[in-house]
Write a structure and sequence with these properties.
The complex is a heterodimer. Chain A is of the alpha+beta class. Helix content of chain A is 34%, strand content 30%. Chain A has four helices and five strands. Chain A is globular and about 40 Å long. By secondary structure, chain B is α+β, with helices and mostly antiparallel strands. In chain B, α1 packs antiparallel against α5 and α2 packs antiparallel against α4. The longest helix of chain B has 22 residues. The chains are: A alpha+beta, B alpha+beta.
Chain lengths: 108, 285
């Protein structure tokens, strides 16, 4: 019985650490995004002015990864990820379309 | 059964830590020592060093042999990685230390190593000890199939790295108390076969994108599978062994059996690889 109590206490402690699902990035219109964002030229200030702040990760190197999202139809969305360098200039961009496996992952 | 014993043992250890710490305090300076004579002290060990259980690491090696089919052409090494920005990753020495035995372990330039099997060290429940302070480094198993294209890994290799790493007790990815509870309650299968297993992988350089390829299927990993989920605050990062490698951190879908073991995981880095040093006389004077 004592073991069961300990297990329950452990499970509750771990459950207390559970976090909410990550928030998606700010939603943008993909055409406008593709038009305005040019790697090697677009700056942080221009991104903020055009699309507003969004979810980002800052690294010790001074680089940042920014995540925007755009509707892909049918209630699905694609990811638009930008890499900004130390000077705040977009260096890389990637578009990740929705995949069939995303639905399975969301249901897990 | 034994995980609960381990949990109770860990909690008891927590209670005893102050006493242990007290025992290892340095002796007070002798009042009779000659004050005028300068003394040289050679430090041969680090207080509170990084250490791992030798028995557990051997169990990890046994797990590798049992599940070698996940990565039939691969070999196993262990690897030391930085966890604090201040840690010097050069010149690390490693040894297996029991009550009556010490076995030195050769550490390669990339801080990889293999462990010899030693029955006496197993009997004595030896520790694998590095000359760096605890929490300054993290450890991983490294399972690599030779001959893969550059900047790629094989998913079966990563699956086996997870199983070996958890079995060997290498991962310290949460606060100490929660780490003990989690390791007492989670088996390698529970960690490695679950989407919530929270087993982190690291690349050699800062990472921008990860793509999976198997047959005609290609998928880019979502943002939430990079950078340890990308939601860690500065305070939370100290409990993640990705602390100084956040930009090299990713989750691989090792739990998702729709991706076969031969799936290639390819990396696009934040910056291109530095050009190899030219042979045409660009060396520093």
């Amino acid at each position: 019985m004592k073991r069961l109590h300990l297990l329950l206490v452990g499970a509750l402690l771990l459950a207390g650490c559970a976090t909410q699902a990550p928030q998606p990035g700010t939603v943008v219109a993909v055409d406008r995004f593709s038009q305005l964002v040019v790697p090697g030229r677009t700056t942080r200030a221009e991104l903020l002015a055009a699309f507003g702040p969004t979810r980002s990760v800052a690294f010790d190197s001074g680089y940042q990864a920014w995540l925007y999202s755009a509707s892909a139809g049918g209630g699905r969305s694609e990811e638009l990820v930008l890499l900004l360098d130390r000077e705040g200039i977009v260096r890389k961009m990637r578009r990740r379309p929705p995949y069939a496996s995303d639905t399975a992952a969301m249901q897990r | 059964m034994w995980p609960m014993r381990g949990l109770i043992g860990s909690l008891l250890l927590l209670c005893c830590l102050p006493a242990i710490a007290q025992e290892t305090q340095p002796a007070p300076e002798s009042a009779t020592a000659p004050a005028a004579t300068p003394q040289t002290v050679t430090v041969t060990s680090t207080r509170d060093p990084v250490d791992k259980s030798y028995r557990k690491m051997i169990r990890g090696m046994e797990r590798f042999e049992r599940q070698h089919a996940l990565a039939p052409g691969a070999t196993l090494r262990f690897r030391l990685l930085p966890r604090l920005p201040t840690v010097n990753m050069r010149g690390i020495t490693l040894k297996v230390v029991g009550d009556h035995i010490t076995v030195p372990v050769a550490v390669a330039e990339d801080n990889g190593f293999t462990l010899p099997r030693n029955e006496q060290a197993l009997r004595e429940d030896a520790a694998v000890i590095a000359n760096r302070k605890t929490t300054s480094m993290t450890w991983r198993a490294q399972v690599v199939t030779p001959g893969l294209p550059p900047d790629t890994r094989r998913l079966g290799d990563l699956r086996l790295e997870c199983l070996v790493g958890v079995e060997a007790g290498l991962v310290s990815n949460s606060s100490p108390l929660f780490g003990w509870i989690a390791s007492a309650l989670n088996s390698p299968e529970q960690v490695c076969n679950s989407a919530d297993g929270n087993f982190l992988f690291f690349t050699e350089r800062p990472l921008f994108s990860v793509t999976l390829r198997a047959g005609g299927r290609t998928e880019i990993l979502p943002f939430r599978m990079l950078y340890a989920g990308g939601e860690q605050t500065r305070d939370e990062l100290q409990y993640c062994d990705c602390q100084v490698m956040l930009d090299r951190t990713y989750y691989a879908p090792i739990w998702d059996r729709s991706w076969p073991d031969d799936t290639l995981v390819s990396f696009e880095y934040m910056q291109d690889a530095p050009a190899p040093a030219s042979a045409s006389g660009e060396a520093a004077p």
